[in-house]
Amino acid sequence: MEIKMVDLGRQLHPIRSEIDFAISSVLEKGDFIQGTPVREFEKNLSKWIGTKHVITCANGTDALQLAFMALGLKPGDEVLVPTFTYVATAEVIALLGLSPILVDVDSQTFNIDIETASNLVTSKTKAVVPVHLYGQCANMEQIIKFAESHNLHVVEDTAQAIGAEVKFSDGSTRKAGTIGHIGTTSFFPSKNLGCFGDGGAIFTNDDNLAARLKMIANHGQRIKYHHDVVGVNSRLDTIQAAVLDLKLKHLNSYCEARQKAANYYDSALKHFEQINIPFRSSFSTHVFHQYTIKIDGQFSRDELKSYLAEQGIPSMIYYPLPLHEQKAYLEFLPGDMDYPISTSLCNSVLSLPMHTHLKIEEQDFIVQHIKSFFSK
Ligand SMILES: *Cc1c(COP(=O)(O)O)cnc(C)c1O
Q: Which residues line ligand 1 (CB under 6 A)?
């Protein structure tokens, strides 16, 4: 039995001939940059996710960078961002000369803690970035209220949560990434909607922001060779768009497959006193980009990880170091902050194999070995 963290081969196999056809159509036509499939995919994704505009770009990191450029933030402006996230979120903020203000996370959702964020707001604070980590949404209703009261822009990093649904207290629902002023996502191959290379997209309902985003992603031009602002070159390849447009048709069933696998893990692992299974909030669905358990302090997460590896079971630590302990980000730390939740998560989280084609036998094998580890 060969178990992988993410098995892209198994996902490809059933749609292989359609994929080959889509790619060869692009090859025949030769419209590799900004071809028809790019516009088609943007149209179909905007319908699927429920937002007025989708602007595709080269990757999820660029999507974040384009978002902050389009919002017109100025050097020195402060942006609130969780310290327990992938580096890209804070990286682009720093790169643009803005100040990432690192915030500890909520102990249940592992997403930005709004009470802590409130204490860090200054006159320079201009935006907040909820990251829907592992596919579990941040509490968007609370975040929108907080942002409105401080006049902040909201940029949702939806790289791990495409398809997750946020439920509001008035009963309405909206997909993650469409609630803030701008949402961003990544089509990195292992993401929930992945292409065969790099890709990304930006969501917004705001016509002005959409126009600015398009212009900035295309060298700051609206008319060819007329550059109104300093922009970048960030485009989704036509081949990747053709692949993504095809995979989008399967995204609902991919989400369901992940949720089914997560439910199976949950029911098998919830009885272990040493393990905390992933939190399911009442305000959103979870699309399980990762299935991440937390190992109680007195038991060693690292020993479990090596034990599983010896049995041929991969597992990953997302993330071993919080941003506030990363060398590159030390200069952004306020003097006397500590980050107890994020620090403890880095020492206790473990992500188990999770993908759209995980087999019951594989999950049984994984659970069995977790059981034998704890009964040693
Ligand atoms: C993957 C990821 C990104 C970056 O996406 P790329 O396409 O790899 O640039 C940003 N934020 C989060 C939370 C991610 O998981």
A: 59-61, 85-86, 88-89, 131, 157, 159-160, 186, 188, 198, 200
